[in-house]
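Quick illustration for those who missed Monday's session on complexes.
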Amino acid sequence: MSKAIYVLNGPNLNRLGKREPEIYGHTTLAEVEQICREAAGDRAIVFRQTNSEEQLLNWVHEAIDEASAILINPAAFTFTSLALLDALKMFEGPIVEFHISNIHKREQMYHKSYVSLRADSVMAGFGAQGYALAVKYLVTLTS
Ligand code: CA2
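Prediction with CA2 bound:
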């Protein structure tokens, strides 16, 4: 049996659907989890969100043993965390870096992603429904 797909979400994404809907839409994080589970079908999904960098690193470490693929929306840690990049480099399976909004349409500080130095694929600007596309891609890739 294939291992789970880890869907990891970084800081502030617990507020999804409650602030700045013009950028991030109206979908809540609970609805994003449902979108991911439906897209995965029978495949196991581990879906998590944290505001803590340490916690996110620990989940990436857990994924090294437990996951076949990682879909990660690192939020602001995308642009700041060499520690997250180092942890992701230890993971041997496919990694999709995911952003709800198009980070390249934003201010310059949102243009340089450390995570992209390891990610196999990057998605940005597909909205919350984009999670379904990314999960389906990873299910196909790892089945
Ligand atoms: O578009 C994305 O998914 C982002 O990764 C979201 C991050 C942002 O720092 C990235 O540049 C792009 C987090 C945005 C702040 O969190 C919010 C969550 C809900 C509503 C408003 C803001």
